[in-house]
Write a structure and sequence with these properties.
The complex is a heterodimer. Chain A is of the alpha+beta class. Chain A has 29 helices and 14 strands. Chain A folds into 4 domains: about 170 residues, no CATH class; about 210 residues, no CATH class; about 210 residues, Multidrug efflux transporter AcrB transmembrane domain (Multidrug efflux transporter AcrB transmembrane fold), CATH 1.20.1640; about 230 residues, no CATH class. The longest helix of chain A has about 35 residues. Chain B is mainly beta. Helix content of chain B is about 15%, strand content about 40%. Chain B has a 13-stranded antiparallel β-sheet. The longest helix of chain B has 15 residues. Chain B starts with a helix and ends with a helix. The N terminus of chain B is likely disordered. The chains are: A alpha+beta, B mainly beta. Chains A and B meet through α2, β3, β4, α17 and β11 of A and β1, β2, β3, β5 and β6 of B. β4 of chain A pairs parallel with β6 of chain B.
């Protein structure tokens, strides 16, 4: 077994090395000794590849731009100028320039690097649209009036007057100027500057680099699993590398500001770093277990053998996982802890019995055979039930949970095989005891059992009754348990990422993103066919415009082509006047309701979309008149443009029809106008798709528990479906022309919030299946329905009490922590099986209930107590973790395993004593056998 | 829109032919400058000399007309197409150009006029048929996206020698139109303020004096985009022009392909449908008023 585990570990290590080198090759930093890639940190590993939300998220990434936003904010206490002070602007300009040079930073938006689009004088005698950065030169070279002008351009006159003073703004704009005509730049307020200008921010768009399929195929060949995992590792590596560089830039900044940074990549990186820090707890846990073993057995062999078994099992398990091409993820990373629990428990049972029997035997082989004979069944059963429990997780839709099922199940089987293969061999190598049999321990155990068993039997009704009451009340509490997850609560409140996040959310804006994506009907016509159709329409139009009458056939053809064209055009929602009007009202509706602190959508702090672009261009086209800070409509199209006209190609002399213009063509042309001057990184590709059939409304949200997110998402969906059914139709409705677009919510935050819901659902389902399977197995093994049913009490009680208390207290359980229930269930069932096996053995040998219980206490008492102590000590280490879910796993693990011990030593015997009458009926049959 | 026209002028297609043979076919009336004895004292001197010669080489085409299709691919390979017509008038003090959209229908007739000023800010105007207005535009960034494509104005503008620091890198071989082609790699580092790149690597074909490929690097020095010219055609036995220009963004996997369906250089060398001789494009065709009357 040692050899097999070693082979698996070696092959696994080889596969990891190969994969790590391949990933580094993708990153373009191929080295001889690639850093091992052990963890699969893909976001999408948490979701079913067929999950609609995930597919939509992927579509959005491909059709728009795959990027995440990172915000860096600071406060300028200068009350008059705020971040428009020369000092703050100089700091922003310097940081913007430096951060722009960081790899994978696609774009930096800040006060000094945002486009300033306006109607203004051009030269001495002309005016027009002027597109410049807000601050083109070094900020120190701007006079106070020039700075004030830019403050008004960003904040608007009203807000600027509250910062710089009404008189100053009045003096700048002139005495006849209307403040309301100076609307400012809504895309920047709450984005790169706060309303009162005290907070400035640098918004970094961090690319998730995309890899060519061809390149992936070259490197990975047919290994599709690796080809799926590697790009995410490359993307994470790119983003986290960029974050590290940005942190260095901020640390080296000499402006004296205290910078705060937040965003999804910051969170993900923090999670990894904290997780990596927690890896040391696995080592600490092993050390504590070793110490506990030393205290219990006071022999080197008592420590070395279990640790050898655990180490071999872990190496074999991890090696097998990596060998098969999988990596660890945040859930399976705790698999070593699980295997440790299982391996140590099995070893302790064998060792306790070995050291107990050793003084009585003079022959090693006989001694070891007896130890194995007595433990073979319970160890086998506990391993089978534990493996079954884990394998039940494989029904989950959530891949990490599935993988935990496979990994835990494999670990349980491996631990069993290694224990049964290594332990006899190791025990055979130990010397026999020179001392004769001593009854010290046996006597003390006998005394304990002599006292405890009568007490339990005397109070059995009260114990079982009260246990049932407790289970009932706990079940009630459990029904109220909410599985929730809040990223903020995952970390220690003093964690810098959390303090930064809270600061930014308090002073500026939310740090999470929600993508509300609208899609119009897809065109059934190919691009070539659409071009041919457009050409034919143009020909027929020209004929009409040339005062020639179309033949009847041409008229029919013209009408049909027009109809087809209109049907296709209907899907181009980003230029549809009707769609834009509706989505604008929807956006306003959300913003209005978000102001109500009691509404679930009060989490929304800002919304951004192509509507902002259209309003801005319309406003600037109309010489900065505030009444035109609206969406363009057909009413804005001059009468003469509403008729088709003809122009001629200079070279070919062919006529070209300029179709009748309307609000949609005006919107299309405004997009062209905008893209004529926007930086590539500010272009429309992150707001609308190139075919104009996709439209993205981005909402910034405050961090909140997943349940609150769920409520907010449901509310947004409800508002859309009930009040704006035209833009939130089903695919069928859109295809049939009964709705303009479908609406989907997506984004990492959305996916995670949904995942937590699926997570708890999956876990509860698989736990129920596991419990049912284990109960049936116990019934089958002990050939007793009653024993099976009674076993439920000690199996379920330890789990329900803490969960029930949390439910009654209204404390939600953080999503990932709930997997501790799986581990605890495994331990509880193991304890129960060890207990029942001894009890059943005694009963089958004709012992009555009190005798059978005393026998069980004497034989199983010490190993069960030791395994409980060891595991409690091990889990207690996790309570020191900075990562809240792991801390909770530690806390719940200690409580549940401790309760499992109480249940097995108090509740199980009391419950079993009720079997007396039933068994007495069958005792004759037993006696006959 | 001088920047657009010059896609065919300097940056993607530079010069032509092996001297003697090309002279024999040259019907453009523009002699090919003699190939100087390039100084090889340093990579910088050699690179700069190559760039200067390229610049001198592609002069004298007077004006051009091109009809093209721009295909914009997203990362999934889905695409949309736009059709544009370009008119360019070569000028000693900078080119003048008009770019007009032909499709899709909702932007048909949108036209942009640009007066290039190599050492000052360009003058630009945009005409929107839906508003029937010509608006002057000032200060648009050189690193601005060209109509939402993967091209920026900077990519489409000429590689004005003085605006870059040149350095010869090495000789290499790449595939062009399926043929193995020997090229010289020359690094060009922008020395103007608002460039979107840290450097370009220009793949210069010294036999035909044309640019086969350009690699663009972002401010962090990482590969950003690759431009590939192909389907080359020689005009008037003198000027090479690519009929396909492919710009691929390596970081987003988006791509824009420009397919030129028809191109004419020096229009006075072409005839009208009725057989009469054409004239070259006039100054008056590149005015604000002319833009509005289209």
């Amino acid at each position: 077994m040692l050899g097999l585990s070693a082979v698996a570990a070696a092959m696994g290590a080889r596969q990891v090395k190969r994969f790590s080198a391949q990933v580094d090759a993708l990153r373009g930093v191929a080295t001889k000794d690639a850093e091992p890639k052990l963890i699969d940190a893909r976001t999408d590993i948490w979701f079913d590849p067929e999950d609609v939300g995930l597919r939509r998220f992927k579509d959005v990434e491909k059709e728009f731009i795959p990027e995440d936003i990172v915000l860096i904010a600071f406060e300028e206490p200068n009350a008059k100028w705020g971040v428009f002070s020369p000092r703050a602007l100089a700091a922003i300009a310097k940081l913007t320039k430096k951060i722009q040079e960081v790899p994978y930073v696609r774009h930096v938006r800040s006060l000094t690097a945002s486009p300033w689009i306006r109607w203004d004088a051009i030269g001495a005698d002309d005016e027009g649209l002027v597109v410049t950065d807000l601050f083109e030169r070094a900020p120190a070279r701007y006079s106070s009036d020039e700075r004030l002008k830019r403050m008004v351009a960003v904040l608007g006159a009203e807000r600027a007057s509250r910062v710089a003073g009404r008189a100053a703004v009045r003096r700048l704009l002139g005495k006849d100027a209307r403040f309301e005509d100076h609307v400012g730049e809504p895309r920047l307020v709450h984005g790169v500057v706060s309303e009162h200008a005290r907070i400035g921010a640098i918004q970094v768009q961090l690319l998730r680099p995309q890899l060519e399929d061809k390149k992936l195929k070259t490197i990975f060949g047919h290994d599709s699993e690796s080809a799926r995992i590697a790009p995410a590792l490359v993307a994470n590596d790119a983003q986290w590398g960029a974050l590290d560089q940005i942190r260095t830039i901020l640390a080296n900044d000499r402006s004296g500001y205290r910078f705060h940074m937040t965003g999804m990549p910051v969170f993900e990186q923090n999670q990894l770093y904290t997780g990596q820090k927690d890896m040391m707890f696995v080592g600490a846990m092993l050390a504590v277990i070793a110490l506990a073993l030393m205290c219990i057995f006071r022999r080197f062999s008592g420590v070395a053998i279990p640790m050898l078994i655990v180490g071999t099992s872990i190496a074999g398990m991890l090696g097998s996982i990596w060998w098969s091409g999988d990596l660890l993820n945040n859930l399976t990373a705790i698999a070593p802890v699980i295997v440790t629990a299982i391996g140590v428990a099995d070893s302790v049972h064998l060792l306790v019995m070995y050291f107990e029997l050793r003084p009585k035997y003079s022959d090693r082989q006989t001694l070891v055979t007896e130890v194995v004979r007595r433990n073979a069944l319970p160890v086998f059963l506990t391993s089978i039930t534990t493996a079954a429990g884990f394998f039940s997780l494989t029904i989950s839709e959530i891949i990490p949970l599935q993988m935990l099922g496979y990994t835990g199940g494999l670990g349980a089987i491996l631990a069993y095989l290694v224990t049964m293969a290594v332990m006899p061999a190791a025990l055979s190598a130990l010397p026999l005891s020179k001392k004769s049999a001593s009854n010290t321990e046996t006597e003390s155990e006998t005394r304990a059992s002599e006292r405890l068993v009568p007490w339990i039997l005397k109070h059995r009704a009260a114990i079982v009754g009260s246990s049932l009451v407790v289970v009932g009340v706990s079940a009630l509490g459990m029904s109220r348990v909410e599985i929730d997850s809040n990223f903020v609560n995952w970390f220690h409140p003093d964690n810098p990422v959390i303090t930064d996040l809270k600061w930014i959310e308090k002073h500026l804006t939310g740090s999470a993103d929600l993508e509300i994506v609208f899609y119009g009907a897809k065109s059934n016509t190919s691009v070539d066919a659409a071009e041919r159709r457009a050409h034919r329409i143009e020909q027929l139009e020209l004929k009409q415009l040339g005062q020639k009458t179309l033949t009847a056939q041409e008229q029919r053809e013209f009408a049909k082509l027009r109809r087809d064209e209109r049907r296709d055009e209907r899907g181009r929602i980003a230029v549809s006047e009707r769609f834009l009007g509706q989505v604008a009202r929807f956006e306003r509706r959300i913003i209005e309701e978000a102001k109500d602190p009691n509404s679930p959508i009060s989490l929304v702090t800002k919304m951004e979309s192509a509507l902002d672009v259209l309003r801005k261009v319309h406003f600037v086209q109309h010489q900065n008149q505030a009444r035109y800070f609206t969406l363009p409509t057909s009413a804005d199209v001059p009468r003469e443009a509403r008729r088709p006209s003809v122009i001629f190609d200079e070279m070919t002399e062919e006529p070209m029809v300029i179709p009748a213009q309307n609000g949609s063509s005006l919107a299309s042309q405004y997009y062209v106008q905008y893209e004529n001057g926007a930086k590539p990184t500010e272009n429309l590709s992150r707001l609308i798709t190139a075919d104009r059939r996709g439209f993205r409304l981005n909402a910034r949200l405050k961090q909140a528990p997943s349940l609150e997110y769920q409520k907010a998402f449901n509310r947004i969906r409800k508002i859309a479906e009930q009040e704006f059914p035209d833009i939130a139709g089903t695919s069928a409705q859109v295809r049939a022309g009964h709705a303009l677009s479908t609406m989907s919510l997506t984004g990492k935050q959305y996916l995670f919030a949904n995942m937590i819901h699926h997570f708890s659902h999956s876990l509860v389902l698989s736990m129920a299946i596991a419990l049912l399977a284990i109960t049936c197995l116990i019934m089958l093994i002990y050939r007793s329905v009653w024993i099976g049913l009674l076993s439920l009490i000690p199996n379920v009680l330890p789990l329900t009490i803490p969960l029930g208390l949390l439910g009654l207290a209204g404390i939600p359980i953080d999503g990932p922590s709930i997997i501790v229930v799986s581990v605890a269930l495994g331990v509880c069932v193991d304890d129960t099986i060890h207990f029942l096996t001894r009890f059943w053995l005694a009963r089958t040998q004709g012992a009555d209930i009190p005798k059978a219980l005393r026998f069980t206490f004497r034989n199983a008492g010490a190993p069960l107590t030791y395994t409980t102590l060891i595991l409690v000590a091990g889990f207690a280490i996790l309570t020191l973790s900075e990562f809240r879910p792991n801390k909770l796993i530690g806390q719940l693990g200690v409580i549940m395993i401790g309760l499992a011990w109480i249940a097995d030593f108090v509740v199980t015997p009391a419950a079993l004593s009720f079997l007396e009458r039933r068994n007495s009926r069958s005792s004759e049959a037993v006696g006959e056998i | 829109m001088w920047k657009i026209c010059s896609i065919f002028v300097f940056s993607f297609a530079i010069l032509l032919g092996a001297a003697a043979g090309a002279r024999a076919e040259n019907t453009s009336g523009v002699p090919i400058p003699d190939v100087p004895n390039f100084p090889r004292t340093s990579p910088r001197a050699y690179g700069t000399a190559l760039a200067k010669y390229m610049d001198r080489y592609d002069t004298g085409w007077k004006d051009h007309y091109a009809k093209s299709k721009m295909t914009l691919y997203d990362a999934r390979g889905d695409f949309v197409r736009r059709e544009v017509i370009q008119l360019v008038r070569e000028g000693a003090k900078g080119d003048k150009s008009i770019l007009r959209f032909r499709s899709p229908a909702d932007i048909r007739g949108v036209a942009a006029l640009t007066h290039e000023h190599p050492r000052a800010t360009d003058d630009s105007w945009l005409y929107l048929p839906a508003s029937r207005r010509v608006r002057r535009i000032s200060g648009a960034n050189r690193s601005a996206s060209f109509q939402g494509t993967e091209f920026t104005y900077e990519d489409l503008s000429s590689l004005v020698v003085e605006k870059y620091g040149w350095r010869y890198l090495e000789e290499s071989t790449i595939a062009v139109d399926g043929k193995s082609t020997r090229i010289s790699k020359v690094e060009a580092k922008p020395n103007y303020r608002d460039s979107g790149y840290s450097k370009l690597i220009v793949y210069l074909n010294q036999r035909l004096w044309r640019v086969e490929r350009v690699d663009y690097f972002d401010h962090a020095g990482r590969p950003l985009k690759v431009l590939t010219n192909s389907k080359w055609r020689k005009h008037h036995g003198r000027f090479w022009r690519p009929m396909r220009v492919d710009m691929r963004n390596l970081q987003t996997q988006k791509r824009t392909v420009l397919d030129i369906s028809s191109m004419f250089l020096n229009l006075a060398l072409h005839r009208k449908r009725d057989g009469s001789r054409r004239s070259n494009l006039k100054e008056s065709q590149f005015t604000r008023a002319a833009l509005a009357t289209h």
